[in-house]
RNA sequence: GGCCCAUUGGUCAAGCGGCUAAGACGCGGCCCUCUCAAGGCUGAAACAGGGGUUCGAUUCCCCUAUGGGUCACCA
């Protein structure tokens, strides 16, 4: 049974690099019917940010990365917040001291700084037992450090392969801080083991510190988990993702108008590729095909252009009713909340669904609906449509009386289209020469979501005739 | 700087010793079309450089270059 964990620190907004890590952890577990757990790593009390834990919960919920064990939902390996497990770590640290894999250190920060060290000098490694006991009894602040033996460690990563690090490169890291809290390095190992995590999935920035963890596992006699180190994600400038460099957080992306499903789909492909070239995936579909084997080693740059395209793909495939509900606020704002009978919001929404990458594009697309824009008669001139102001005027004056005769009941797209085309024939015009002027008269714009007769149907008889009349006036007709 | 890792078109990427080096986004063109989108077709665009190994290297090895990561009582 595969067990993975997402272990963020509640220090602010949710980075999309973190989100991708969470996504891969979720997918690796789900692909094999495993368990995905959420663990909050809040051992650094000074960096806690109010509400940060809520952001983590909300983000996972919004993206559908539901965890099987963790805060709020519980589980057999709780508690799932490290500060609530504080008392758990010290006994393990003491066990290591007894086994001589760790030792007490009483050096203060000031002392360490004054010694100007590259690496801890093991000043406290060989303190006499009685001296240690004395200091502990007197309440002298201490930390517990891991003793790194001479030698080297080679480990296997599922993505990067075999990696060897000489122990000279590693220092005797602190396991328990002077406030009694474990460091990340220690808590992580203890928790991963006690929570029976089988696959440790994290960013590749942990690659070089992995030997320290392995030494810990060995000191305890525990099995080393499977490691899956993920390639880094860089921003569009090729820099490490950070809040300072713009939209790096999930929330920022939401604010820009990206759909959670599109974000998930897109970041899944940053560092991973599907075997069959397919690119549109829902979370559930990803969970069926995701494979560690297809994760790449090289870091990738975040590209808003492709995400925008992906967003459009997701919008296009939305169920029309779902899309309508999402679009409604934008429709209302662009149509100023009026619901005159010629405006069928559902119909309008459907015309717009395949034309946008973002919902916020809706108002501009429909700005001609509520009010006919001021436009120049040059709009009627279109070379490819073979339309000029003269043909446009002739076309509109010819169609107006014909449309006036159409009853409200017969005011439908197909019917109006046929009438227009027939009218064009009597004038010996190409279809475009009659349709383009009508469309332009109705929209007052170079382009619109819908053609001539479609717009006519959308506007209804009265408003359509009015706009055609306005156009005739502009063109100098009567 | 030491150590670790990476390096295929602008970007995401397939490739796992022999290929006209896929595909996607973006960009250009064409088709379709009641404008614009959508859709279909299509074009330009890449193996960082140098040595090896091999009958043969994008694929394996070494060096160089570039980029990144890491060297905390942060995670």
Describe the structure in your own words:
With 478 residues, the protein is mostly helical. The chain folds into 4 domains: 157 residues, Rossmann fold, CATH 3.40.50.620; 147 residues, HUPs (Rossmann fold, 3-Layer(aba) Sandwich), CATH 3.40.50.620; 53 residues; 107 residues, Orthogonal Bundle (Arc Repressor Mutant, subunit A). 44% of the residues lie in helices and 9% in strands. The strands form 5 sheets. The protein has a 3-stranded antiparallel sheet. A two-stranded parallel sheet has the order 1-2. Helix 7 links the parallel strand 8 and strand 9. It is elongated. The N and C termini lie far apart (80 Å). The mean pLDDT is 93. It binds one RNA strand of 75 nucleotides through strand 6, helix 6, strand 11, helix 11 and helix 17.
Overall domain count:
4
How are the strands of the biggest sheet laid out side by side? 3-4-7
- Beta-strand segment tally: 11
State the distance separating the first and last CA atoms: 80 Å
Structural class: mainly alpha
CATH architecture of the largest domain: 3-Layer(aba) Sandwich
Main sheet overview = 3 strands, antiparallel
Could you say which overall geometry the principal axes of the C-alpha atoms support?
elongated
List unreliable stretches of 5+ residues.
none
The CATH topology of the largest domain turns out to be Rossmann fold
CATH secondary-structure class of the largest domain: Alpha Beta
